[in-house]
């Protein structure tokens, strides 16, 4: 499966290019690094917990106020739990055939092996989401590269792992000859070495400024 890396600067047309590649007749799957970067810091994730632990004490407005106030769902009794929820990782049955071995390895190491219990899901919903604007001010306005390196050391590994999981899933499905990976900082992150082809989208400076001002009037 060919990995097509899509990159480019701000407001150059990466999203438009991605829509063309994911629409018929190409219909290629898309892995968007920006979308994944938001997903890996959702409340309850490891990256979220690490960010709160690292920047929370010095950033009072790091977390947004949550509007969720739903009561916790009832917990399942031991008699009503599914067989999957009862299994511990070491208790999962080992596969017998080589094909099942590959499936077992992918599920065991590249995908979460089970969904969390209802109570844990509810606890994650009750956590307050990150205030991305406050985090950006904390990291960039301080003028310290140390804070940016700390944040990147938390987020980047989580993003790479999530991208690897999705690539492995698409490869294992075997339905597509290629996949588009939208990575704005392709060369800076060193992910270009994994790409079979690189599409770099460019636009004139005037076009970029016009698009940025139209998208962000406050600029």
Explain what this protein looks like in three dimensions:
It contains 10 helices and 4 strands, in the order βαβαααααααβαβα. It is α/β, with parallel strands linked by helices. Strands 2-3-1-4 form a 4-stranded parallel β-sheet, with helices on both faces. The longest helix is centred in the last third of the chain and has 29 residues, at 145-173. The chain starts with a strand and ends with a helix.
Q: What spatial order of strands do you see in the largest sheet?
A: 2-3-1-4
Helix content: 40-55%
Roughly how many Å apart are the termini? 41 Å
Mean pLDDT: 80
SSE sequence, one letter per element: EHEHHHHHHHEHEH
Shape from CA axes? Answer: globular
Query: Roughly what fraction of the amino acids lie in strands?
Result: 5-15%
Low-confidence stretches: 68-92, 112-122
Structural class: alpha/beta
Number of strands: 4
Total helical elements: 10
- Rg from Cα: 21 Å
Largest sheet: 4 strands, parallel
Instruction: Classify the oligomer.
Output: single chain
Describe the SSE topology.
Elements: E1 2-8, H1 14-22, E2 30-32, H2 33-39, H3 46-55, H4 83-86, H5 98-109, H6 118-126, H7 132-141, H8 145-173, E3 178-182, H9 186-189, E4 197-201, H10 205-215
Parallel strand pairs: 1-3, 1-4, 2-3
